[in-house]
Amino acid sequence: MSDHYQIFGAELSPYSVKVRAYFRYKGIPHDWLPRTDENMAEFQKFAKLPLVPLVVSNHGDAWQDSTPIIEEFETMFPEPSIVPADPALAFLSALIEEYADEWANKYMFHYRWWYDADQVSAAQRLARDARPHAADVEIEAMAQMLRERMVQRLGFVGSHSTTKEQIESSFIRTLKLLEKHLTHRPFLFGGRPALADFGLAAQLYQCWTDPTPRKLFDQKAPNVAAWAEQMQDPSADGEFESWESLETTLMPFLQSEIGGLFLPWSDANAIALEQGKEKMSVTLEGKPFTQTAQKYHARSLGILRERYAGLSGNQLLDTVLAKAGCQQFLV
Ligand SMILES: N[C@@H](CCC(=O)N[C@@H](CS)C(=O)NCC(=O)O)C(=O)O
């Protein structure tokens, strides 16, 4: 019998739907198990951290953390590959995935827990998913409790009154730039999904399910909405493109979102931690952006830098990263 996997996840967890989309694309045999109060004991038997997604094999092996999960399964299930053969494009795909996990998650979380309509919608869906058989009054009470708890966590992603506008304009600009990019191709790197698609579509799909950002999708970004939806269960429709054909519409996104926001933020976060500071602060687009420093992000920036160091001498990559304003943060 071939190996079979269980994915403990949640519909409202971007990292969970990212891993589920990946398993679907690869045709890896799996069951999707929404984590509920009822299977919590089973979840806890395997989970080292109280986080979804958690993947468990029929041999009892367990994996957590979406990026390492995908990297590990990519070695076990190499086809169809989600890594462009050109090492420069493979790096850009990993960079965009990192942006998705660490920065796009800010606008996802911000919209979900900032406005009343979004708080109510998400809290009710979360409560119903966790207790599928509970009575409505129980769901209402749980939703209220979840809403209060999650709103208090806005600060962890750096969302507060002084950063609200920066976070929202990043989302709106992302929609606008991706809308152009995805007009001429089904996926970010061409005719088939790359790691970047799994990471970024997962965050944007969550935004699409929340009432306030959903309106922005409807007004500004039908192609991005279609892509995010399609990425729930993607299939290849062609080959990866070359940088020459991607550049016109991908470069503006790299410049404004990654070179302009994400990497300066990530770099400042790592420096704050090195200096033993609890808070990080950086000037983004002329305004201060402050939040509690994040250890996890500093580790993943370190991994990205090591990977870039391993590609030393790749002229195409150096030129693209320099033009995108990213290179200085990766050395
Ligand atoms: N870096 C992790 C992040 C996972 C994560 O933050 N999961 C959230 C949901 S999106 C979670 O499980 N939060 C606690 C909970 O829902 O109980 C990954 O990529 O898998």
Number of domains: 2
Report the major sheet: 4 strands, mixed
Q: What is the count of helical runs?
A: 13
Question: Could you tell me the number of beta strands?
Answer: 6
Ligand names: glutathione
Low-pLDDT residue spans: none
In whole angstroms, the N-to-C terminal distance is 46 Å
Radius of gyration over C-alpha positions, nearest whole angstrom: 20 Å
Tell me what portion of residues adopts beta-strand conformation.
5-15%
Order of helices and strands: EHEHEEHHHHHHHHHEEHH
Class by alpha and beta content: alpha+beta
Strand order of the largest sheet: 2-1-3-4
Share of residues in helices: 55-70%
Overall pLDDT, averaged? 97
Give structural notes.
- It is a single chain.
- This protein is α+β, with helices and mostly antiparallel strands and 331 residues long.
- It has two domains: 5-76, Glutaredoxin, CATH 3.40.30.10; 87-112 and 157-329, no CATH class.
- The protein is built from 13 helices and six strands.
- The strands form two sheets. It has a four-stranded mixed sheet with strand order 2-1-3-4, covered by helices on one side. It has a two-stranded antiparallel sheet with strand order 5-6.
- 42% of the residues are buried.
- The model has no long low-confidence stretch (mean pLDDT 97).
- The structure holds glutathione.
- Glutathione binds next to α1 and α3.
